[in-house]
Amino acid sequence: MNMPRFRDLAPIVLLAATALSGCSVGPDYTPRTAADLGVPDAYSVTAPPTREDLTRWWTRFNDPLLGALVERGAAANTDVAQAIGRLRQAREALVQSRATLLPTVSGSTGYQRNENLRGGGRSFTLPDGTVVDTGGGGTNNFSVGLSASYQVGLFGEIRRTVEASRAQYEASGFDYATVLLSVESEIARNYVLARAYQAQLANARASLAIQDDNLEIAGFRVQAGLVSSLDQEQARSQRAQTAATIPQLEQQYNAAVSRVGVLTGQAPGALKAQLAAVRPIPVAAAATGVGIPADALRQRPDIRSAERALAAATARIGVAKAALYPALAITGNINTNSTSISGIGDAITGGLFAGLTQAIFNGGRLRSQVRAQEAATDVALANYRGTVLLALEDIENAIAALQSAEARTREFTIALDAANTSAILSRSQYRSGLTDFTTLNQQEAALLSARNGLTQARADAAAAQIALYVALGGGWDATTIPEAPPRAGSEAR
């Protein structure tokens, strides 16, 4: 009976291996619905139900410098660069996992020269009289070999590994988007702080100028014997307290500007000249539509990252379970040897080997690994649910903070108008001797408080608006999975 040849066996074995590898153990991942995650149908706070495109939310403040700083930060921030690096690592891990789906092929070639140094051939005599026989009958040996190996993955361990790597790569993309949003919001928030400190400094310096006049008037009235020196001392004390706030505000302003510089990938003092000109606190153009809570599942990159992490953990259960079953490996080789290059194909030998391995006793280690991965999946599910709930909390808190800041702004506007009128009247009456300095002092303090209160309310409104934009998932394109941008200076491969 004729034995089947190597080339006849190879397709049969590979076809059988392919058919067997179609089986995958472990659970298939099923996305959770909004109801599964406990997402309500509506927010518990009042907000516009329409959904808006917030991809470039910073343009709503109509502040070109703010927009330029946010965009520079997205391109140059060091935390963003680290997130991009981690995304590239995840992409290469996916490439490596996919490579295990294909056979590994390697080749070899060699040349050997053998010389017979005895038994004939030419000879010559060295100067010292020694006779050397060069031998003869030397032979050449050429060899070429090709080997291949293939890990079949009968129970889907390889495809489950690729599935987990793909999910992890996608999660890294969403992690990158999360870092990007965080950096954008921090730049905008510190920019608002810088403008707020500028406004508070202007308030303090304006009050200081008035208090200088009050101190001078009090001094004249003391010299004229119209009032006691108590008025002058009160004026001096009030002026000193106002002057003492200026260095602290300057320090806070400097810290905010330095923070913006570092967030945009520059030295702390790089933006001092650019931000030195006083500008108002940015105000968003209009009210923001927040949509429904389920929108956050699609818009928030941290939620989508947690979902992909759950998918990866689920796939790894299959990898762990597959280790309980047999593993099939196929190896083959082709070799040829010849004494001349022209005859290299005259004699070819080859072999094919298929081997199954099965764990028989491992002290329960493999089943423990399955249970550990199932526990890791439970952790990932709990993290996913927790991330969803925290996102909804962020949105509702931002809505409430914005509404509070807007209400305070309206009230402080009224308070400032009243305090300014009261201060003007008190100042006029004090000059005319119709009121005492204590009353004037109280009205001046109330005016400064109202100015700073309005400034703070406006800054809080801008900060809450930024927080709401980010909480809703603005600042990135939610219609795509973020890809790692090409490395600067790298060549296409």
Automatic annotation (TrEMBL):
Query: From what superkingdom does this record's organism come?
Result: Bacteria
Q: Which locations, inside or outside the cell, does it occupy?
A: Cell membrane
Main location as per UniProt: membrane
What's one GO MF term for it?
efflux transmembrane transporter activity
Which keywords does UniProt give here?
Answer: Lipoprotein, Membrane, Palmitate, Transmembrane, Transmembrane beta strand
Return the SUPFAM superfamilies for the record: Outer membrane efflux proteins (OEP)
PROSITE patterns the UniProt entry points to = PROKAR_LIPOPROTEIN (PS51257)
CC terms in the record's Gene Ontology section: plasma membrane
- Tell me yes or no: is Transmembrane among this UniProt entry's keywords: yes
User: How does the record classify its membrane topology?
Assistant: Lipid-anchor
Q: Which family does the similarity line name?
A: Belongs to the outer membrane factor (OMF) (TC 1.B.17) family.
Protein name in UniProt: NodT family efflux transporter outer membrane factor (OMF) lipoprotein
